[in-house]
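Entry for the shared binder. Reason: the reviewer on the internal report wants the predicted structure included alongside the sequence.
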Amino acid sequence: EWSGAYQTDNLRLAELTGIPQRQMTTVLVGAFLMGLACAYWSHLTIYYQIGQNLIEGGSVTADWRTGVALREFTQTVAQVNAPMPTDWMRTSYSIIGAAVTIGLVLLRRIFLRFPLHPIGYIIANAYGDVLPAWFPCFLTWTVKAALMKLGGLPLLRRAVPFFLGLIIGHLFAAGVVWTSISVFVSDEVARRYYTVFG
């Protein structure tokens, strides 16, 4: 994954340790290209040898990602074979969503302490009714606003380890505890504790 934050950290480390920036950039680009080639080789090799439907030990139904890809492919083929007229309702919703997001960006540029962030709006509405994320976003915003009101930035910084502990504990429970239990009980045990890593 080519993440700008990691590359910036590496360039800063190079600056602190006296490594020339051009040399570090060359190494980073080389590592990215090497990693990309290895990722393509390993994924495609395993996919063609075993098949994506069987990689995670499941049946031909495979995992969630494969199911989504298959569903989207099926919908695309159906729309190519039998084109549907333009859905103006969905188009108008997309335009309204884009306008609200742009409006939030402009408000944050005009007003220094404008509390609503455009990324929060996008995440909160990303999955619609299927996986509503608006309440966790609202709860997080409310807690942050309360901490800032009560103790300002120092209190917020002191609270960060607590909330990081909640996140790590949640991921540990989902990724380690329930997965370990599912080995002895059933695969369904781990599947019921739904967590998105990343």
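Summary line for the report: The radius of gyration is 23 Å.
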